[in-house]
Each structure stands twice: as C-alpha cells, then as structure tokens.
Amino acid sequence: MSAGLNLAQQEAVNYLHGPCLVLAGAGSGKTRVITHKIGRLIQAGLEAKRIAAITFTNKAAAEMRERAKQLVGREAKEVLICTFHALGVRMMRQDGAALGLKPQFSILDTDDVTSILKDAGGTTDAATARQWQWAISSWKNQGLNAAQAEAQAKDDLERTTARIMARYEERLTAYQSVDFDDLIGLPLKLLRDHAEVRDKWQQQLGHVLVDEYQDTNATQYELLKLLVGERGRFTAVGDDDQSIYGWRGATLDNLKKLPQDYPTLKVVKLEQNYRSTSAILRAANNVIGPNPKLFPKTLFSELGEGEPVRIVDCDHEEHEAERTVARIQSIRANGLGKDWKDFAVLYRANHQARVFEQALRKAQIPYKVSGGQSFFDRAEIRDLCAWLRLWVNNDDDPAFLRSVTTPKRGIGHQTLQSLGTFASKYKLSLFEALFSSSLGSVLPARAVGSLHEFGRYVNDLEFRARHTEGAESARAFLLEWLKDIAYEKHLYDGEDSEKVAAARWTNVLEFCDWMAQRCGGEIDDTAGVSLTSEKKNLLEVAQTIALLSTISEREKDQNVVTLSTLHAAKGLEWPHVVLAGCVEGLLPFKPEDEGGKPVSEEFAQRLQEERRLMYVGITRAQRSLAVSYSKRRKKGREMVPAMPSRFIAEMALEKTTTKEDPREKLKALRAEFAKKATETAAAAAATGNG
Ligand SMILES: Nc1ncnc2c1ncn2[C@@H]1O[C@H](COP(=O)(O)OP(=O)(O)OP(=O)(O)O)[C@@H](O)[C@H]1O
Ligand SMILES: [Mg+2]
What we know:
Layout: H1 7-14, E1 20-24, H2 30-43, E2 51-55, H3 58-72, E3 80-83, H4 84-95, E4 106-107, H5 110-121, H6 126-141, H7 146-151, H8 156-174, E5 177-178, H9 182-193, H10 195-204, E6 207-210, H11 218-228, E7 234-238, H12 253-261, E8 266-270, E9 272-273, H13 278-288, E10 300-301, E11 310-314, H14 317-333, E12 343-347, H15 353-362, E13 367-370, H16 379-392, H17 397-405, H18 413-425, H19 430-434, H20 445-466, H21 471-484, H22 487-494, H23 498-519, H24 538-548, E14 561-565, E15 574-579, H25 601-618, E16 621-630, E17 632-635, E18 638-641, H26 646-651, H27 662-686
Parallel strand pairs: 1-7, 1-8, 2-3, 2-6, 4-5, 6-7, 9-10, 11-16, 12-14, 12-15, 13-14, 15-16
Antiparallel strand pairs: 17-18
Bound molecules: adenosine-5'-triphosphate and magnesium ion.
C-alpha cells in the first residue's frame, strides 16, 4: 500500500493504532492517504466492514469507493464509505428505536421543512418560514434543543423562533420524521444517552477516517469523539486554509481541539503538492499568505513552472463567457486538453452559471452544472423552450403537450388523451391531428374548438416570429406573447412564495432579453468575441435555441465541461480551470472596507473565509489557470461598474526572496492596483451603463 506515496504519506498510512491528523495544503495527497489507509488497514487484518471513511459529499464518497476498489479489490465494497449524514441515517435505522424512532422514519427535504414550519409558526409566507429554518438549523448545528435555544435567546425574535422550534419538533416526532440536521444531532444524542448503543458502535468500528476535516461542525466533532471512544482510532485529514463552510457552522476549533482531546495525537504534515504547476501554486500561496496561520505550512511542486496564470479582463459578463469559451476551444485546438472533462469554470454563486451555459450551448460544447441547477433546466425556461420548439417544429409532440397545458387553457387531460389515440391511429402528430376534419367523430365540438383555437394561435405566433427582426421588436413580441398566455400569473398562481415566483419571472425576462439580443445581432453566434450587427428573425433564433435545448442529453457520457460553484468544487481537480467573476462584491463578497473606513472584526473574519475560498478555487487547477473579471456587471436589471477582485493583485505577486517582506510589497501593489481600478471604474461610468 505504500506504492505511489511519499515518506510522510507512508507515515500516516502506516500509523494504525492511535489518533492521527494529517494537516496539509491543497493537492498534497490527503485524500490519497485516506484511500491507501483503507487498504493498509485491511492488509493489517482489520475486517473491511469495521472501517468507516467519511467524505464531505456523496459524489466524493462514490469516487473514493471507486478508488478503494481499484486498490484493494472486491473487499472494498464492505467498507462504509459515506458522508456524516449517511452514517447518521444508518445509525438511526439500526438504533433509532432507543429514541422512539421507527426504522422506517422519513427524512424531510427543505421544502417539507418549510411547509411544516409554516404550519408550526402560523404563517403562509415561505420567506419567513425559511428564516426560521435557517435559525433552527444553526441552533441544531451548535447542539442546542428548543428549550436551550430559548434560554439563550438574545431578543424577542429569537425567543419566538425558539418556541416555533419546539412546535416544529413536536410535529416531526408525530410524523416519525427527521430533518437534515437531525441526521447528525440525533445519532449524537443516541450515543450520548445510551451507553449500550455507544459500546456497540465503538466495538463495531475499528477505524474511522475523515476527509475534509476542516469543514466539520461542532456536532460532527462530538459525534466522531463518541464513535471512536477512548482509544481514538481515527485518521482525520484536512487543511485549515480550505475551511469554507464557516457560514454553515463549520469551525476550525475542531482542529485546535484535537491535540488537547487526544494527547497521543500523531500529526503528519505533507509539503509536496502533486496537483499543480509552480506558477499556479505560487498564486495560491500569495493569496492565502495574508491570513493568520493556524499551523505553519509550506507547499512546493515539482511539476515545473508551467504556463503563467492568465488574468482575463472583459467588458461585461457575456463577453467574459465568450472569452472563456474561446479559451477552452483554443486550448483544445492546441492539443493541450483533449477532453471536455479536462475543463472547469468555477464561480462564486449559482446565478453566475447562466451566461456560461448560454455561451457553451451556442458553441455546442457539452457541459454539466454541479452544485446548483442549470438555468436551462429550470421549469420556467423549459416551459418557454417547449413553446419555441413547437413554433419551429409543429410535430414535436412533447413540446405540444407541454405548451398546450402551460399555462392551463381549458384543454383537459381527457381531450388530450383522445387526441393522442386519434393521432396514433392515423399516424399523425398531435398538431396535425388537431386540424383533421374527422376529429369531430372522437371529440365533442367544444373540445375541437379549443384545440383549433390553440393551433391557430401557434401558427400565428410562428408567422409573426418569422417576420420579427431586431432586438426591440423581438423583445416587444416576446413580452406580448407572455402577456397573451398570462405566463406571469401562471407563475404566481403556482408558487406559495411571491419571492420565488418573482425570481422565476426574472429568469423568464432574462431569457427573453437574451433571445432579443440575438435577434439584434448583439450576440454573435459564431462563438467569436466580436459583436456583429447581423440581424436575425425571431424564428431563426428560436430554431437554434430549440436545437440547443436538447443538448443536455449529451451530458450523459460525462465527457463534459464542468460549471461549478467554488464550494462544490472542493477536493476536486481539473487540468484547466477558469475562475470567473473575480470582482469585488462577488469574490470577495460585499466588500465593506472601501474608502479606508475601519473594518469590523466580523468583516475581517469574513474576508479570511473569502480568501480561503479563492485559495480553494486556484488550487483546483493542474496545468492552466485563467482568472477572469468583467468591468461592468449586472446588478438586478442594471449594469454597474465593477472592480477586479483584490485577490487578483495579490496573486500576481512575483516570487519573493526571503529578504523582502512580502507584506510591504503587497501593500504597494494593492495601492497601485486600487488606483488603476478606480480609474477603470470611472472610465466605465463615464461611458454610461449601455
Ligand atoms: N505521492 C504521490 N505521488 C503521485 N501523485 C500523488 C501523490 N499523492 C497525491 N497524488 C496526486 O495528487 C493529486 C492531489 O491529491 P489529493 O486529491 O489526494 O490531494 P488533497 O490533499 O486531498 O487535495 P485537496 O486539499 O484539494 O482535497 C491527485 O491527482 C493525486 O492522485
Ligand atoms: Mg482531498
């Protein structure tokens, strides 16, 4: 099991009988230590089923299972490789009876939780319920129950929320249900209060391994402690510089507490990075540099200097997406990246994915969105695409069925069923069938009338779309159509929460805007960077979109470009990475320290976590890294000037010699950079919002 491991890794892998912490920077082979140690433990005679390896996501668990299988063969199947939450489910299914839970208890998703909270708190407003949900979740993560939360409440709002929590908990018990946080909290209670269950689990588990240890929260720490007991046979691997879930209750205290709680703890540090080139690693080290150090670490790579990190400045977000696509295409053309799966575009927030999705679709590049829903998979966008498909191809039956019922127009299930039977009998599409003169023999006149009306409406739309050109007329046409079919009302009627409906309506408007721009030639379809002025009619545009909306089928082979949030990219690696949207306000989020105002302690802490997030992003890249930002960005419906992220200036630092104080150099660079950024913003503001 020591093949492919350096000495420090071997030390961690071979240390079997006591608590072990591997503390090391990104890409230094921590996860590799875990998979190899599983093999080593089995080799040393521990039964596979007595080993548990805990990962941060289900996806990471699946990957680790695969790697373990390659290393140790079939036996790996017996190892319990899962997330903390999945382990919790297993414990509760086996032993939840001690807490009054039946083995077949249900696990609620967030929507269920929201509706139970609405009921418990006597409100119909989903947004309010979600606020309670957030507060309750954070209490649960700190290990507090309703009574304890009420006792420590700081104000009336917290007191009320704690009382709602009590009613919420009563309901969960009555429904034999648990929420996501209970999957950690209840097993903890189980082990704490029931010695026989605790003994059973401590006997059962011969060794517990934990990946991404820096992102565990207080209840997970306690759970681990009770699972491994006094003997403390566990291996935790982590990197304090990659702790990015502070906002969800993860705490670095868990790292600090380990040596105190386990005096025999063996600490292993790994210093060689096997993932990235020196150029990428230097950028990462420079960004994380200013953060206070919990444990001193140095990281080096032997993969050579490699390509310099590219800073890509763009005019606006669409431009950024186009340049990203152009970069991917050029790297492929140069033979540096063969497969689509060699590429990832990473960003801060889910909503940033949209422009990249659109640009990739235009260029017919397959992709997947991880850590969030794809813009084109949203129900409202799928609704609109169904209509477009129907204009373009009347014989598209699935599109017909979706359009004729979205929004509802008094054409019911039975009518559609009869139409379907009739159509298949005569080998017609649904659309052809509805105009057939003998349809009256199977449907009442009123139903035929409604179908005809719908058919004529679609024909009319198709005709008008063909004669609509230019952005302005396209926009007007699309808005009129949405008004005709009362789509906005349909969204509001179908959603409990006005806020959610409004967000969906905004997506619809964005989509229409995007189509309209393509009609005006404002967006170039040849995936170049320049803007062309060639106008298209709306039907032509609909045609390309209709084609694109079926592209997602191609994702299945998984040789696709990854679009991902930074949080969801943790632990993963790609040969080529684009870190997009690196502007102040997004990364770091909401800067507060502009204009030399003194910053609060809370903000300083936030900024440290932002810096770690950037570090996580940079260190995903193996061979090439581009960091991009745009000079203007959309805020709501408006374009506002944007400043490049402060982290960009910090990354670009050259290699420092030991004599130089990097902080002084950083200060100077920052000042120069801030000056440039202000000039850029002023220039952008002067040219208007366009
Ligand atoms: N001793 C080694 N020899 C060769 N390659 C290695 C070695 N150790 C790790 N690697 C490779 O380096 C890359 C990074 O390893 P790994 O993912 O285990 O790092 P990590 O420390 O878990 O990173 P992260 O902090 O991002 O989770 C992987 O491609 C892995 O296969
Ligand atoms: Mg890892």
